[in-house]
Amino acid sequence: GAVVSQHPSWVICKSGTSVKIECRSLDFQATTMFWYRQFPKKSLMLMATSNEGSKATYEQGVEKDKFLINHASLTLSTLTVTSAHPEDSSFYICSAPGWRGEQFFGPGTRLTVL
Amino acid sequence: AQTVTQSQPEMSVQEAETVTLSCTYDTSENNYYLFWYKQPPSRQMILVIRQEAYKQQNATENRFSVNFQKAAKSFSLKISDSQLGDTAMYFCAFMKPHSMEYGNKLVFGAGTILRVKS
């Protein structure tokens, strides 16, 4: 199956700083990628759709100035959490669609904001 | 809007036994995909099984099979010969393909935590 990587897998930062998370499709191209947020023992919450060559589409209630998304190439999307605060601490997951309707997920990034 | 409901927050099963996880969904669409994803303690999302709505035959992947009832909008997952490695959170998901309105997004259920006991 197709592989999606995420980097870093775990990051700790101070309140007020920005953190960038990378999502890469390793063996296929993805014009679209998705970013999710997940709290413990809860479902995935879609934050935004990352579109290569155009602006991301954010879900209702997601602050686009807070969560900056850039889809720089057909294999890379980045999520930057700007001016992070403790309430931004969470598990962030990206995915890229496959050719049979399924999505391939990255291993996730655990963000802890002190 | 599409919704997916998983009514069992937690379940447990003895090793080697069979367990069925429930999922219902609501849609007015006729053509769509349904999925079961597994999220073990590592938190890596893994595709378990996929079903296309136009196919009447239930999908099967080794010990995993589904009971797809389109009219009832039901999509349950049966795990046979449960193994300790099946312990995970399981998510049912819906997707409308090639949709300008929904953009190939997955709609997830709330999830079911499955614990396999030895």
Task: Outline the secondary-structure elements.
The complex is a heterodimer of chains A (114) and B (118).
Chain A: E1 4-7, E2 10-13, E3 19-25, E4 32-38, E5 44-51, E6 57-58, E7 67-73, E8 76-81, E9 90-97, E10 103-105, E11 109-113
Parallel strand pairs in A: 2-11
Antiparallel strand pairs in A: 1-3, 3-8, 4-5, 4-9, 5-6, 7-8, 9-10, 9-11
Chain B: E1 3-5, E2 10-14, E3 19-21, E4 24-26, E5 33-39, E6 46-52, E7 60-61, E8 64-69, E9 74-79, E10 88-95, E11 106-108, E12 112-117
Parallel strand pairs in B: 2-12
Antiparallel strand pairs in B: 1-4, 3-9, 5-6, 5-10, 7-8, 8-9, 10-11, 10-12
Describe this structure in words.
The complex is a heterodimer of chains A (114) and B (118). By secondary structure, chain A is mainly beta. In chain A, 0% of the residues lie in helices and 54% in strands. Chain A has strands at 4-7, 10-13, 19-25, 32-38, 44-51, 57-58, 67-73, 76-81, 90-97, 103-105, 109-113. In chain A, strands 2, 4, 5, 6, 9, 10 and 11 form a seven-stranded mixed sheet that branches. Chain B is an all-beta fold and 118 residues long. Chain B has no helices and twelve strands. In chain B, strands 2, 5, 6, 10, 11 and 12 form a six-stranded mixed sheet that branches. In chain B, strand 7 and strand 8 (64-69) form a beta hairpin. Chain B is globular and about 45 Å long. The termini of chain B are far apart. Classes of the chains: A mainly beta (114), B mainly beta (118). The A-B interface holds A 1, 32, 34, 38, 41-44, 46, 49, 57, 91, 93, 95, 97, 100-105, 107-108 and B 33, 35, 37, 42-47, 50, 52, 89, 91, 95, 97, 103-106, 108-111, 113.
* Contiguous runs where pLDDT drops below 50 for at least 5 residues of chain B: none
Helix content of chain A: under 10%
What is the approximate shape of chain B?
globular
Extract low-pLDDT stretches of chain A: none
* Greatest contact between two chains: A-B, 23 and 24 residues
